[in-house]
Amino acid sequence: MIGALLALLQVVAPPGAIIPTPPAAQTSPSTPSSGGASAGVPLAPQDWSALPVLRIRQRSTTLANTSAYVHGEVMAGRCARAIRTTQGWTLSIDLAVLMTPDGRVRRITPRAIDCPTVEQYAAGVILGARDAIDVVDTDTDTWYRTSLTFAWGA
Prior knowledge:
Elements: E1 4-8, E2 55-56, H1 64-75, E3 83-85, E4 88-99, E5 105-110, H2 116-128, E6 133-134, E7 142-152
Antiparallel strand pairs: 1-7, 2-6, 3-4, 4-5, 4-7
C-alpha cells in the first residue's frame, strides 16, 4: 500500500534531513509552466538563492493518489531522482513562483530534474494551492521559491 505525504517546504531543513532545503541556484531551467506563461511574463531568475520563500498558510497533506502519480513515473523509469529511505521513497522538486501583488500566480518554473511529467505535475500542485499562499505586500510582481516533496511507502 502506498502511503503519501506532500510537504510544501516553508523553512530550510537542517543538513542531512530527508526533506530538502529550498533551492539554491537554478542550473538548468525547464520549460515554464502553469500560471499564464504568456508574452511579457518574465522568466525566473537564474539564481534562486536570493528569492524569498513562498509562504503557504498550511502544510498540505494529501491522500495516496496524489503521490501515486509520481510513484508511477519513478517505477516506470521516467524519473531517476527518487531517493530510497528507511520509510520508503521520496522525490523532491524546487520551484520558482511569480506572484502578483494581489496574490495571483503568473508563472511557475520547476527546476529541471530530468522528469518533465513530474515537473509539470508539481507546478499544478502549486497552482492548486494558490488560495493558501501569502504574498508580501509589494507593488510589483515578485518571484518566490519553494520545494515539494512527494513520498510513498516501500
